[in-house]
Specification:
By secondary structure, the chain is mainly beta. The protein is built from one helix and five strands. The relative contact order is 0.23.
């Protein structure tokens, strides 16, 4: 039973969002064990810094806000 819990806690959720600079669709890996997350990640296409705010409920992504870093 402990083995199963360990596997569940190491999974990540893939989620897609649009870059607020170039509008390309990008993907992020989200840790489902942290209900509120905020961090900066560079766009994989245009290299601009994006502030990502991710909210989860019961291990599922309920919202992702992607905004320019200087906003």
């Amino acid at each position: 039973e402990n083995y199963l819990i360990l596997i569940i806690n190491t999974l990540v959720i893939e989620h897609f969002f649009q870059c607020p600079y170039c509008w390309e669709t990008l993907d992020i890996s989200v840790d489902p064990t942290v209900p509120e997350q905020e961090y900066v990640e560079d766009c994989q296409v245009c290299c601009q810094p994006i502030v990502l705010t991710v909210q989860l409920e019961e291990g599922r992504v309920v919202s992702v806000d992607a905004r320019p870093e200087n906003e």
